[in-house]
Write a structure and sequence with these properties.
alpha+beta, 203 residues, NADH Oxidase, 4-stranded antiparallel β-sheet
Length: 203
């Protein structure tokens, strides 16, 4: 994929108000995936990108668990809500994004662990898209079940799951999902960025 050009399909629904890296616009979250395997080099490349995310005190609190083997994929899939199981189960890679809630040096609370893990996930998603792959992050999962089945240690939290793979045809999805299988738009900058203090009209 040419990260310096906006994909024609994306250009139909996404137009940046300023000159930004086209790769950012090209990243979106389909639900239709093919079962074609993601190579070890591709997966490790995505994780390498996540490695370079910024974090508070360089704590790097994120931990990424990944599933590629059928039995591991079934285990990860079982942690998802039914709606996500319907489509994410076809992806060749599932990832659980976890993070440590405390600083490793002294065990004090790290209020920024989720912020930092989010930065790592975004870099993974962008690198995947650069490779011609797609990702879809999921908040719909059973946290207690995931913590138990994935053996998450005390002090860590499962924050999200991610499907990773090649995009499939929207016709492979259940009919109710097909209408949203396209790049979506975003609110304008002025709706979320304010000079100075928070305006009451935007609360």
């Amino acid at each position: 994929m040419d990260e310096l050009k906006v994909d024609p399909e994306v250009a139909e629904s996404r137009k940046a108000a300023r000159d930004i890296l086209p790769l950012i616009l090209n990243r979106w979250s389909p639900r239709s995936f093919t079962p074609e395997p993601v190579s070890e080099d591709q997966l490790m490349g995505c994780l390498e990108a996540a490695r370079w995310a910024p974090s508070c005190n360089n704590e790097q609190p994120w931990r990424f668990l990944y599933a590629q083997k059928p039995e591991d994929l079934e285990l990860f899939k079982s942690c998802l809500v039914e709606f996500n199981q319907m489509w994410a189960g076809k992806a060749p890679v599932l990832i659980a994004v976890c993070a440590r809630r405390t600083f490793s040096a002294d065990g004090s609370p790290n209020a920024h662990y989720a912020f930092d893990a989010g930065a790592a996930w975004v870099l993974l998603a962008l690198e995947a898209r650069r490779m011609g792959l797609f990702t879809h992050g999921m908040a719909g999962f059973d946290k207690e079940k995931a913590t138990r089945l994935l053996r998450i240690p005390e002090g860590f939290e499962v924050l999200a799951f991610v499907a990773l793979g090649r995009r499939g045809p929207k016709e492979a999805l259940p009919e109710r999902m097909r209408k949203t299988e396209a790049p979506n738009n975003r609110r304008p900058v002025e709706s979320f960025a304010f000079k100075g203090t928070f305006p009451e009209s935007k609360a």
